[in-house]
Amino acid sequence: MTTAVVVGGGPNGLAAALHLARSGVDVEILEAADEIGGGARSAELLEPGVVHDLCSAFHPMGVGSPFWADVDLASYGLTWKWPEIDCAHPLDSGEVGVLHQSIDTTVAGLGVDGARWRGLFGDLARNFDDLGHDLLRPIVNVPAHPIKLAAFGPRALLPVSVLAKVFRTPAARALYAGVAAHVYTDFDRPLTASLGLMIAASGHRYGWPVAEGGSGAITAAVGRAVAAHGGTITTGVPVTSRRQIPDADIVLLDLSPAQAVTLYGDLMPSRIRRSYERYRVGSAAFKVDFAVRGDIPWRNPECARAGTVHLGGTFEEIRRSEKLRARGVMSTNPFVLVGQQYLADPTRSTGGINPIWSYAHAPAGYRGDATDTVIRQIERFAPGFRDIIVGTRTTTVPQMANYNLNYAAGDIMGGGNDGLQLLLRPRTAVDPYFTGVDGVYLCSQSAPPGPGVHGLCGYHAAESALRRLRKSGGAAR
């Protein structure tokens, strides 16, 4: 029987293991932490019964993942929950940009910019599944939907700062800025519009749901699916040398390119090793979790109904703070994401105490303490927030890197989204998952299609391994 070892039990390592196990391969996962999940874990951090997400929180790409749909994670215990409003972006003026799953409702709330919003996102939302088929895999492929991809391309190639000129009102420009800021790089760079377009389109197609019970429920469900198909999972096993990896026909690495070089660099072709060594990390996340009594006293009531609130002010303010961060400078007014997951999933709260998830965009390797900066940014739009805090837990950038070794320098995106690396990660290749070492593949979010709890990096890496195995006359079907 064909055997495989997966190093790392994050969403992509689990997805890779599941695809192999469903294909008749005997699979073992080795996870360094005491539990699986990687960036998709949850825990009671501050108060008993109050559940916080440790990293990933909202999952438009997860609920829309074709692989998870094929697996039917609901049958393994996963339940999605949707907030009333997906995202709100308040301004000091009292205006707010509001993103609903319904594009019609979103358009109605954006006034004179409603038609512009529909023109930018309407066709992408309608065609999201077809676009996703072509975009959520290696960029070097024969597209199945070339006309729809051609319609997306001209917009995707633009810098965020250019595409934002479509909008006239501060609220619409700010709403777009918050979505686009998920690209985590300078707004003036070409190609940066692409990720924001896909995130907004996926939201209009599927919404921005949370997993009932916490993001850890996603990976717990995938773990149960792996076990149901005969795979085994061993936790508490850090792998620092390839001598610790059992002999197997296939080895999949849910690791960063740098970690892959540590394990297999001496066996890699020099051109591939150099590509991995040149791979750039992106900017970091400075995370602050709060336990609060009651609800955040937002000045604008729309924010009180939103699962996600983007803070940072106007488009121009966010553009400026993102440019500083990309240059290695921590802004005094950073872009901050606030998660109110309990609005969709009340099981996360208890006794009137609610979990609040937040993080600020920070430069890679930032060593300062931005806790008060995050609180001040929330207070800016919710006066009195400090008064309802009953507990605070800060995860600094170095602590984020220690929490998950894939998050080098605190980079939760698995690599910088600048230049061609946005499209050609981790290297330029027809098969970017293959490390050049026989039987060894990279399946982390540093591989296509990049970050998100969609499992597709793992699925495509496993499929790459199976294709090569079949060509060599291997036993997996």
UniProtKB/TrEMBL annotation:
This is NAD(P)/FAD-dependent oxidoreductase. Gene3D superfamilies: FAD/NAD(P)-binding domain (3.50.50.60). Pfam families: NAD_binding_8. Coiled coil: none annotated. InterPro entries: FAD/NAD-bd_sf. PANTHER family: DEHYDROGENASE-RELATED, PHYTOENE DEHYDROGENASE.
